[in-house]
Structures are given as structure tokens and as C-alpha cells.
Design goal:
With 307 residues, this protein is mainly β. It has one domain: monomeric porin ompg (Porin), CATH 2.40.160.40. Helices cover 9% and strands 51% of the residues. The chain has a 14-stranded antiparallel barrel with strand order 1-2-3-4-5-7-8-11-13-14-15-16-17-18.
Length: 307
């Protein structure tokens, strides 16, 4: 039994370590509920001014599991210019990353039904390793007597979005500069690595009371397998939303939402892992609130459902 416990512990440590190394940018269920974090081209994509707040707690009851909190504001500043600002707080183990983004998006009409949005992102981040949080068997170990900080690091990103009234496709690289903070410690997340995202979806408007919106997202990052997200969103009577999702190498999820409630959309997502981490935790929770700050409610079918 003792050998079995040791084996299980080793397997869990390896599995968690692989997940943390692959997860440098925040991970979300149903990316379309907070797309500006993923792609700066979503600033003002559907003509509305939106305030979006998301909280995600991954692997409940696992010490050091990822926690992510985001706040994003985006809208149209001029006829063809969208502006956005967002803040991301991401913690994994003893690592803390705080990122501030400013987004500029140019909206180019392509005929009556299509438009192409090109965007750039300017950002800065601070990465910290809170070594004093580590419990050691050697009191006063000098290696764990102080915290480490990267200082303020500039970065940049870009994104594109092509959309019609039924189809949309996007590509983004939220950060293009990689950072290695130079520490040889393996106890924290010491690198900031660029991620690349591509996604597309289609909107089926079967009736006024029922709409179906499937989409797929591909995430690619160095030294990790390409990951696919499959999402299926159902809307009923323009008020209720039910979504299902699956992520390769991770697990499955369900999303419930209330939309168009006094200019407020509310989404709750639950993930169930299908990996060895399920021996420790079977719960990941995510809540997103989207407030429409526009004077008028603008309904555009395609952008409405990836924003």
C-alpha cells in the first residue's frame, strides 16, 4: 500500500507539473463569453460597449491550483475604431502574474454583411514568485526568505476577426514577447511564453425561440501539445443559454447562462477533468458577468454570440 501511495503521488505531481508548464496564458471554459481577453479584435466587435468580469477557480481543493480573475472594458470610440482595456490576475502555485492590456481595433466593412477587424495590443506585466509561501523542512532556509519579482515588463500582441451575420473566424497572439526570468528554481512559473489562438464558429438561427451556435478553438504554445476546444451553445427565447464543451487532454464542461436581463448577461461554467487530476479534484468553477453599457441594446446575430 505504501508503494502504491508513492506511485500515485509521483503520477499526480508529474500531471500537475505538465498542466502548469503548458498553461502560461489563462485558461477558460467557453472562451466566447470573455473574448476580448483572448483577442484584442473583439473591442467593440458588435458595436456595444461591454464591461466583462470573469473569475475562474481550477481544481478546487488542490493547493496551488490555478486561479484567474479578469476585468475587460471595450467599445467603439469612432465609427471604425474600437478601444479596449483589460486587467488579468493569474496565480499558479507560488507564481503571481498581473497584466494590463490596452487594445486598438480597426473595423473594415467588406460589403453589406462582412467585416474584417485588425487589432494591436500594448501591455505590461509583473511576474512574482512568492517564495516565502513555501513550507520547508529547514527553518530559515535563505532560498525561501524573500520573494522574487520580474519588475514591469512591456509586451505586445495582435489579433484578427472576420465576421458575417452567420460565420466568424479569428486569430490572435495576445503576447509576442517571451520572457525567462533567469532563475533555476523549479518550484514556480518563471517563464512567460507566447500563445497562439485560432477559432471559428457558425450561427444557426432555427427560429426566434431557438438558436444553435457551435464553435471550435485551437491553442498552440511551444513545448506543449496543440489543444482543441469544442463548444456547443444553445439559446432559448433570447433569455436562456446552455452550453457544452470539451477540451483535448483536459476534460468536459457545461455552461448555464441568463442573457438580456436588464443589460446584464450571467454565465456559470463547470469543468469535470478526465485526467489523473480527477483523483484530487473533480471541480473547476467559472463565473462571468457581462454588462452592456451602451445607450441602446444592439442586436447583431454573429458578433452577439462571440462577445
Amino acid at each position: 500500500m505504501k508503494k502504491l501511495n508513492i506511485i500515485i503521488t509521483i503520477v499526480l505531481c508529474v500531471a500537475i507539473g505538465q498542466n502548469l508548464r503548458a498553461q502560461q496564458d489563462p485558461m477558460f471554459t467557453q472562451y466566447w463569453v470573455n473574448p476580448q481577453i483572448l483577442n484584442p479584435a473583439h473591442a467593440g466587435a458588435d458595436g456595444r460597449t461591454l464591461l466583462n468580469a470573469t473569475a475562474r477557480n481550477q481544481w478546487i481543493n488542490v493547493k496551488g491550483a490555478p486561479q484567474t480573475y479578469t476585468l475587460a472594458l471595450g467599445g467603439m470610440a469612432q465609427e471604425r475604431l474600437g478601444l479596449g482595456v483589460s486587467y488579468i490576475h493569474d496565480r499558479v502555485g507560488i507564481s503571481r502574474t498581473n497584466t494590463l492590456n490596452i487594445d486598438f481595433a480597426y473595423h473594415l466593412p467588406l460589403g453589406e454583411k462582412w467585416k474584417l477587424i485588425s487589432s494591436v495590443r500594448v501591455s505590461c506585466l509583473i511576474n512574482q514568485l512568492n517564495l516565502t509561501e513555501v513550507n520547508t523542512n529547514t527553518p530559515g532556509d535563505p532560498m525561501f526568505m524573500e520573494n522574487l519579482s520580474s519588475g514591469l515588463r512591456p509586451n505586445a500582441g495582435f489579433g484578427f476577426l472576420l465576421a458575417s451575420d452567420k460565420f466568424y473566424a479569428g486569430y490572435s497572439q495576445p503576447r509576442i514577447i517571451n520572457y525567462d526570468f533567469g532563475t533555476t528554481s523549479n518550484i514556480g512559473n518563471t517563464k512567460i511564453i507566447s500563445h497562439r489562438f485560432a477559432y471559428l464558429g457558425y450561427n444557426f438561427n432555427f427560429s426566434e425561440d431557438y438558436k444553435l451556435r457551435p464553435n471550435i478553438l485551437v491553442k498552440e504554445v511551444s513545448n506543449a501539445p496543440v489543444q482543441l476546444d469544442f463548444n456547443l451553445v444553445n439559446e432559448f427565447r433570447n433569455n436562456w443559454v446552455v452550453g457544452l464543451s470539451g477540451r483535448t487532454g483536459e476534460g468536459i464542461g457545461v455552461m448555464l447562462g441568463i442573457v438580456n436581463y436588464r443589460n446584464l448577461d450571467i454565465y456559470y461554467c463547470y469543468d469535470y477533468p478526465l485526467t489523473v487530476i480527477s483523483l484530487l479534484s473533480k471541480q473547476t468553477h467559472q463565473i462571468t458577468l457581462v454588462l452592456n453599457l451602451s445607450k441602446k441594446s444592439i442586436r447583431v446575430n454573429s458578433p452577439r454570440y462571440f462577445n
